[in-house]
Amino acid sequence: MMGHRRVEQAALFYEFSLEKHVPGDHLLRSIDRFVELGELRRELASFYSTMGRPSIDPELMIRMLIVGYCFGIRSERRLCEEVHLNLAYRWFCRVGLDGQVPDHSTFSKNRHGRFRESDLLRRVFETVLMRCIREGLVGGEGFAVDASLIKADANRQKGIEGDKGLPPDASGRGVEEYLAVLDDAAFGAATGVTPKFVSPADPTARWTGAHGGQAFFAYSTNYLIDVEHAIIVDVEATTAIRQAEVLAAKRMIERSMDRFGLYPARLMGDSAYGSAEMLGWLVYEHGIEPHVTVFDKSARKDGTFSRDDFSYDHEHDVYHCPGGTALATTGTLVNDGTTMLYRALQHECAECALKSRCCPSTPARKVPRSIHEGARDMARQIAKSWEGGTSRRLRKKIEMLFAHLKRILKLDRLRLRGPTGAHDEFLLAATAQNLRKLAKLIPLPNLKPA
Ligand code: SF4
């Protein structure tokens, strides 16, 4: 039989320690060791407002965002509720039991207002990366690069035909940001091709059918990782097309060199990064070994000889054809100065028994050679080697990070609009992934690794 529970008056007054109520093996306890906002506090000072709407302590906002992205809490309203109710979240955010958690409307206004005025989230990401470097988790030996499509917060049903363009009365933050990045090679200037549809809510998001199923509006998140422990060394948001992703790879490699002195010995990537120009940039400009699948469209499908059937003689700078004739070049560059043509002599081709399999519709065969062909040859040789096979396996670590991003951190669709929204979300998610990795690789002293 149930009766009334007797509550002693004295029990209503007690001391409560948040510290004691957060389990020793809670993920946030482990992560907390690596969140170092001390140096950022000076920079954060300018974000404290003494006028107008009450501002949230920027450190509280960053800690709340870390909680949200580490635990896949995507809604700002839910994040505020969770921090209010969850003791571990309160402890991590340094909000006492009777401390006030901002309501979601104030949180949202502060996040999109004052925080957008600086690149504070990149500084937070870099602070965590610095810690990874200090802990010896980034060797700088082998890096991998890849990009993944993330759906934009744009209704595919409401897209308007790209040829018609945005209506003249289109306005809003999404449109303003779209106009601001029109000349940026990572967004508007990445291609001259008009997309099939444009979203009036977020015109920078790119209509793409790259996944093979139903097309949608998307951005690309680009990762540069150190393959040893799969630490994210850099992250960049771009429009969802290959040219922009290649540009992002270059930006990330150069930024990691400038900011942290990280010079990778080799770069791993798929054929999206295997153009002659990109391989030349890696090898000749930065001395990085290209463990990258070569992007090669020279194979012919009509049964005639492909370029691979011609062997290049480095010593004499000629190609040898299957018929044994040498194809030489005059050194004249075509294709905007990127390609040299090697030609067979007309009378030799005319007398050749293989002509019908080589150049049935032209008087003589010519073979194009990129000015970066040396870098392409190097990448081909690496691909055939044992190291190339190892690199292809290591490259999968970046795909696992993207899978983790979408399935565990639930970032399969953006909640913020515009390139700035994508930039903020991708930076925070990468920061959360690095923090979780730090917590996993460096367990608390009194805990044994799982
Ligand atoms: S057609 Fe000309 S280039 Fe082709 S195999 Fe014969 S000689 Fe060589």
Map the helices and strands:
Blueprint: H1 18-21, H2 27-32, H3 40-44, H4 58-70, H5 76-85, H6 87-93, H7 104-112, H8 120-134, E1 142-151, E2 160-161, H9 173-180, E3 197-198, E4 206-208, E5 216-226, E6 231-239, H10 242-260, E7 266-269, H11 276-286, E8 289-292, E9 311-313, E10 318-320, E11 326-334, E12 339-343, H12 346-350, H13 355-358, E13 366-370, H14 373-384, H15 386-394, H16 396-407, H17 418-441
Parallel strand pairs: 1-7, 7-8
Antiparallel strand pairs: 1-5, 2-3, 4-5, 5-6, 9-10, 10-11, 11-12, 12-13
Helix pairs in contact: 4-5, 4-17, 5-6, 5-7, 8-17, 11-14, 14-15
The structure holds iron/sulfur cluster (SF4).
Iron/sulfur cluster binds next to helix 12 and helix 13.
What does this structure look like?
38% of the residues lie in helices and 16% in strands. By secondary structure, it is α+β, with helices and mostly antiparallel strands. Strands 1, 4, 5, 6, 7 and 8 form a six-stranded mixed beta sheet that branches. A five-stranded antiparallel beta sheet has the order 9-10-11-12-13, with no helix packed on it. Strands 2-3 form a two-stranded antiparallel sheet. A hairpin with a 4-residue loop joins β5 and β6. α4 packs across α17, α5 crosses α7 and α8 packs parallel to α17. The longest helix has 24 residues. The protein is elongated. It starts with 17 loop residues before the first helix and ends in a 9-residue tail after the last helix. 36% of the residues are buried. The model has no long low-confidence stretch (mean pLDDT 87).
